[in-house]
Amino acid sequence: MREHHIVFLVFGISVLIALFVPTGVKEASRQTVVVYDAIEELPEGSVVLLGADFDAHNRAEMVPQLEVLVEHLMRRRLRVIAVSMWDQGPMFAERVLRRVGDEHGLEYGIDYVNLGYAAGAQSMVRLLKDDIRAVYKTDFSGNETLNMPVLAGLEGAKDVDLMVDISDNPSGPTTYLEQIQSFHKGFRMVCGLTASAVPPIMPYVESGQIEGYIIGLKGASEYEGLIGVRGLGTIAMTAQSVGQVAILVLILVGNIFFLMERRRRAV
Amino acid sequence: METLGIWIAALLTLAIGSLLWRQNPLYRLAEHILVGFTAGHLVVINFFNVKNFGIEPMVKGGMWINIVPIIIGLLFYFRFSRRYAWLTRIPLAYFFGLSGAIGITGALDASIRQQIIATVKPLYEPEIIWGFIPHLNINNIIILVGTITTLAYFFMTRPHKGITGGMAYVGRFFIMVTLGARFGAVVMSRLSLLIDRLYFILHDCLKIL
Q1: Cβ atoms of A225 and A234 closer than 8 Å
Q2: Which of A64, A173, A181, B21 is a plausible cystine mate for A187, CB 3.0–4.6 Å?
Q3: Looking at the complex, does the CB of residue B198 fall below 8 Å from at least one CB of chain A?
């Protein structure tokens, strides 16, 4: 067994044990509360555009956020329209929307819809802004969208009351900002982001273009606390903290050994 | 069927994880399966893109104008011919022009104008009475100094000497802090991936959590 095996083992075992001691987060951060308030303040029946802009490799952070946000949206009886610029996101959205929709007795096509993936990124969103049906003639399951009740009275994405973009890439929210908010200042947006996507998005939050965001598993855990559900976010929080402490300790130990080695060579 | 899917996923997770010990045939098998599935998935997605947005509206809806982008797209295949490879420049020029036009018109407001406005903030605020120097908004000062000095660091048309050099030197510290924050965030993200896989094996597969 070599040094890196010991590092992996210590790290893996500490995270594994911590998974059996779920604690969640005691208090939600300001940004998470902003997202919660933005959804909570919407009147019943408001239209929410849900962006499932992530791939399978980031499901660890994205799916807990998706679950908890969809739970809140459906609990508030808001009309949810799911779209995606990434091809794998709609598969996760479909599972979560159908399950939570059934739990709340909501009907597909009337209360919520998963429109699926559309290619084109910037140009697709530019068209989506003015005409949803031009981009999505059918939904994820192949149903015609032309007379779908959930889309009644809605022309384009510019008409929605709020966009909730769950994205593993900073280009997700910025595309919607550039292609919709640039032309319609009333377009409101909150985000669910992976931790690594947050730093490039922070300037847009500072400028007020994005109202708020939730970060990774920690954000999901805080949100679960706010709406009173127990999901992977709550279960994983101790493991996340223990893992981060383990990394800090390993960095410290590594540096101590490095300094000792350098001193020994100097002598 | 779902149980079978969960067990296959768990075995593939362990196979990929086995790389932590050393390279082995199980890891390579799982890696090749992933590459194969990804390629297959992309082929299907792109096939339906062309069918749904190009062919069907043309055949069923009479939108014969779609023949133009389809022909432009097909020109890409001339890259396999030495004689006619130059024809691929046409679709490339089309895509560069289109994406540039759409991207820039949107970015001008959201990512440039709005961001410049966001850096113009009051440095002096009478209601602030705390901090090292009362009435000074420290956050706004940091944003202003950080923006100017970081831009100075990327100012390449003059040598980094004198005032420009001093500003670039300060800017380098802001960049290092940003990179540190990003590294911390990436660590947090990758840790979440490990937790998700462990939870999947313990909860969905072994059902002991």
Answers
A1: yes
A2: A181
A3: yes
CB contact under 8 A, A61 and B189: yes
- Angle value at C-alpha B69, between B67 and B74, nearest 5 degrees: 90
Position A120 in a domain: yes
* Structural domain harbouring A37: 27-232
Q: Containing H/E element for A113?
A: strand A112-117
If pLDDT is split at 50, 70 and 90, which confidence band does A79 have?
very high
Those residues with Cβ within 8 angstroms of residue B191's Cβ, 6 or more apart along the chain or in another chain: A15, A240, A243, A244, A247
Cβ contact A177–B110 (<8 Å): yes
Distance CA A210, CA B62 (A): 41
Q: Which residues of B touch A124 (CB under 8 A)?
A: none
pLDDT (tens digit per residue) in A103-143:
999 999 999 999 999 988 899 999 999 999 999 989 999 89
Residue range A54-66, pLDDT digits in tens: 999 899 999 999 9
Within-domain flag for A129: yes
A183 contact residues in B (CB cutoff 8 A)? 106, 109
Q: How far is A267 from chain B (nearest CA, A)?
A: 33
Residue A76 confidence (pLDDT): 96
Domain CATH for A190: 3.40.50.720
Query: Is A157 in contact with A128 (CB distance < 8 Å)?
Result: yes
Q: Looking at the domain assignment, is residue A256 inside a domain?
A: no
- Note the pLDDT tens digit of each residue in A244-264: 999 899 889 989 999 999 999
Q: Indicate the number of domains in chain A.
A: 1
Residue in B106, B114, B143 nearest the CB of A122: B106
C-beta atoms of B187 and A236 within 8 A? no
pLDDT, tens only, B25-43: 999 999 999 999 999 999 9
Residues of A in contact with B39 (CB under 8 A): none
